[in-house]
Amino acid sequence: MKYGARYKAVVAAALFGLLLLSGCASKGEQTIEIRLGEVARTVFYAPQYVALSQGMFAQEGLDVQLATIPGGDKAMTALLSNQADIALIGAETSIYVYQQGAEDPVINFAQLTQTDGTFLFARQAQDRFDWEKLKQQSFLGQRKGGMPQMSLEFTLRKHGIDPHKDLKLIQNIDFANVASAFGSGTGEYVQLFEPQASIFEKEGRGRVVASIGVESGELPYTVYMAKQSYLKQNSEAAQKFTNAIYRAQQWIASHSPEQIAEAITPYFKDTELAVLTSSIKRYKEQSTYATNPIIEEKEWKNLQDIMASAGELKSPVALDKLVNPSFAKQAISSNSIGNTKTDVKKSTTEATDTAVDAGGSP
User: Fold this and answer.
1) Beta carbons of 104 and 227 less than 8 angstroms apart
2) CA angle 188-168-154, nearest 5°?
3) Model confidence at 145, in pLDDT bands (50, 70, 90)?
4) Are the CB atoms for 293 and 246 separated by under 8 Å?
5) pLDDT tens string 230-285
6) CA gap 137, 194 in Å, rounded
7) Of 24-33, 52-61, 80-89, 147-156, minimum mean pLDDT range
8) Exposure winner among 15, 60, 163, 199, fewest CB in 10 A?
9) How far apart are CA 189 and CA 205, in angstroms?
10) Is 330 exposed, middle or buried (0-12, 13-18, 19+ CB in 10 A)?
């Protein structure tokens, strides 16, 4: 789409979003503000940006204030210190807090993604990738105990590679700076989220050779969570939030990568539409986006298997200790647009394709 047409579409969407908000206000409903912290700005979280840009939060009477807090540890700190009401982080962080004996545990209530969102990126082009090629190579890794690093190590061990003996592993770079460090010449291999992987491919810095998401299987990789006390005191807000996320997930499932890219472009103003589209296509092809917010038992078990493999799990934690499925189940029941991750029906929200939630701030 040409810049002028794209600009007009965004403006029209914003105006329509304001109409939606005024419509909610006219009913006399009080808007509920939610401070949402995301661990990164990535196409991996496309359903969240759809919920914002297509007015799904606004339709629920929510004013969602979005902030990017790079790194799972920092995002969790913001949640625990009440700087955020809800956080989008890897579910493993809730287990870490629980293992420390928290009096007010962090509860997972809505899943957004169901696989790892990173891709193995090689600096040198390869006609045919073989995992053995990683041995003795410098690998720009992620933070110890973080889900990207644990999923990587789980995958490497599956292919007979000891990540701490067979690789020249570099782990002294903050999460937010890993991509730029690789771009500056550090490491021969790295894990990258989208759209960074597609951007680097376009720039000729290397190419994607494998998907860690495909290799490590389904798990609650990024989940909306809040302190138990918040969910008890703000159950209506949590339910409305989950309703919007579920509708966004179904919207994602029933729309093309091109349509999704158009919808989320306000949150990626410096990224070309073609790059957004190719990034979303990669994620959709490997079923990365969950089609409903329920965290399943098998996914929870796989998460803990990966943590145990990395030496980060003191003891198994039962699903019902840290997962509250009631909000997800109610969202599915009240929306009546599919009730399993394999039963994807057409979203009923297509009429709001161009709406923008003025409460969200890219």
Assistant:
1) yes
2) 90
3) confident
4) yes
5) 999 999 999 999 999 999 999 999 999 999 999 999 999 999 999 999 999 999 99
6) 23
7) 24-33
8) 15
9) 11
10) middle
Q: What is the DSSP letter of 295?
A: P
**Mean pLDDT in the chain?**
86
With 60 as the cut, is the pLDDT of residue 105 above it?
yes
Helices (H) and strands (E) in the chain, counts: 16, 10
How many CA within 13 A on the CB side of residue 319?
Answer: 15
- 199 contact partners, CB below 8 Å, separation of at least 6: 271, 275
Q: Which helix (H) or strand (E) holds 111?
A: strand 106-113
In angstroms, the CA 191 to CA 213 distance is 11
Distance of CA 286 to the CA centre of its chain: 14
User: Residue 334 corresponds to which tokens in the numbers above?
Assistant: 């009240």
- Show Cβ contacts of residue 193 under 8 Å, excluding neighbours closer than 6 positions: 40, 42, 43, 44, 117, 118, 119
pTM listed for this prediction: 0.82
CA distance 148 to 211: 12
* Six-digit token string for 358: 């003025």
Nearest Cα residue to 344 out of 267, 251, 258:
251
148 by DSSP, 3-state: which? helix
- Tens digits of per-residue pLDDT, 278-335? 999 999 999 999 999 999 999 999 999 999 999 999 999 999 999 999 999 999 998 8
Higher pLDDT, 21 or 199: 199
**60 neighbors 327 (Cβ within 8 angstroms):** no
CA distances from 209 to 122, 125, 131 (A): 7, 9, 10
Domains assigned to the chain: 3-115+219-352 (3.40.190.10), 119-216 (3.40.190.10)
Start-to-end CA distance of the chain, whole Å, equals: 21
For residue 180, the model assigns a pLDDT of: 93
In the prediction, which pLDDT does 78 show? 96
185 CB contacts (<8 Å, ≥6 apart)?
none
Whether 349 contacts 54, CB under 8 Å: yes
3-state secondary structure of 108: strand
